[in-house]
Specification:
seven-stranded antiparallel sheet, 10 helices, alpha+beta, Rieske Iron-sulfur Protein, 396 residues, single chain, globular, 2 domains
């Protein structure tokens, strides 16, 4: 597996895809319903949503703690005792594979005196706290600890690690701190089925490339930039002329998913070769942005790649870009795409989002109207209207 520093990109896929069992058509009205002759223009969010550390603190305690967010990949847990740690909503957590081959998620904190249990990733037959050697089974149950027999009335069976909900979504593991959260299939209707259609071997994929991109902006600035292509033709010449056909680009809501669809560019203009006969969707480009901070993206040729955002504070975020192949096998086209993406779209987006963050701090900024075109398409910001509605709700 190769690792690169830095990245960011766009996600999208096939147009003419208004099927999805009517989902696109029902949500289109919600996104673009204003009557142009009578409606008041929808204005963008106030700058404070992106610049106020108090709002970020609210998101950490609320929105980010009760939504499904990427933890890791099933391929990281091959045998009992395999584990990896991750961050979510300011919490340090870990996933582990039990002896019964169940994937469990826990808060990474000892129930004795709160020392962190694990770091990084690895394999351990038992979970042993480095502080006082309290030892837990992979199921989270307390097993032993020095001199515990001297503790009168101690019932070891009542001491367990605090569990976190984990869902396996096509091999990608998501966590949610809300024990009562609805399942991912209710949050993101049809996505599992569609991903399997576009990438039939998705359950066999492993990561081949990882690209890390630090951005000096609020996480919502970066997510908004990803969630519209109004800026693409002006700012992303390689993407707009060598990967997708912008005239066919559209984005529609699908539950708490934003579905990007477009056709690929003409074959003689593509920056890499694709075989249109390899799959019925080989000539499409699509992405499924899962609110609030993850996206599956399929490039023409059925190449799966992902984005996930990890906020650092109210004006810094790290974006991780993953590229996948069957069993993680080497593939020159994927390597070359990862490099092209990092050097073009990603680099271009870094400058855009960091400039926006600086502008949001200007006393001269007055939020302007969103371009909400009833017909949708590449030059409309109807997806941003929906996204900003979710952002407002996240701090209410």
């Amino acid at each position: 597996m190769r690792y690169y520093l830095n990245d960011c990109s766009l996600v999208n896929l096939t147009v003419g895809q208004r099927h999805v069992e009517g989902v696109f058509e029902t949500t289109r009205n919600d996104m673009t319903s204003e009557n142009s002759s009578t409606a008041t223009p929808v204005k963008s969010l106030d700058a404070r949503y992106y610049t106020d550390p108090a709002i970020f603190a609210q998101e950490q305690q609320g929105l980010l703690a009760r939504t499904w967010q990427y933890a890791g990949h099933r391929s990281q847990l091959q045998k009992p005792g395999d584990y990896f740690t991750f961050e979510l909503a300011g919490e340090n957590l870990f996933c582990v594979l039990t002896r019964e081959h169940e994937i469990k998620g826990y808060y990474n904190v000892c129930q004795h005196r709160a020392h962190r249990l694990l770091t990084g990733e690895g394999n351990s037959a038992l979970i042993v706290c480095p502080y006082h050697a309290w030892t837990y089974e992979l199921t989270g149950q307390l097993r032993s600890g020095p001199n515990l027999n001297s503790v009168a009335g101690l019932d070891k069976s009542s001491v367990c690690l605090s569990e976190v909900r984990i869902e396996d979504f096509c091999g990608f593991l998501f966590a949610n701190l809300d024990a009562d959260a609805k399942p991912m299939d209710e949050w993101f209707p049809n996505v599992r089925k569609e991903l399997t259609e576009y990438v039939p071997q998705i359950e066999s994929l492993k990561s081949l490339e990882w690209v890390e991109i630090p951005e000096k902006c609020n996480w919502k600035v970066s997510v908004e930039n990803y969630s519209e292509c109004y800026h693409c033709q002006l700012n992303h010449p390689t993407f707009a002329t060598g990967v997708v056909k912008p005239s066919t680009y559209d984005i529609q809501a699908q539950g708490h998913c934003l579905r990007h669809t477009t056709e690929c560019q003409q074959l003689d203009k593509m920056t890499y070769p694709i075989d249109l006969n390899s799959n019925e969707h080989a000539g499409h480009y699509s992405s499924w942005f899962l609110w609030p901070m993850f996206s599956f993206q399929v490039y023409p040729g059925n190449i799966l790649n992902t984005y996930h955002w990890r906020p650092v504070n109210h004006e810094q975020v790290v974006l991780w870009r993953g590229w996948y192949t069957i069993d993680g096998s080497d593939a020159d086209v994927v390597h070359e795409l990862a490099v092209q993406d990092r050097q073009t779209t990603v680099e271009e987006d870094i400058h855009l989002v960091e400039s926006v963050q600086q502008g949001l701090k200007s006393r001269g900024y007055v939020p302007g109207p969103l371009v909400v075109d009833p017909s949708g398409g590449v030059n409309s910001e109807h997806s941003i209207k929906v996204l900003q509605k979710w952002m407002r709700e996240g701090v209410e």
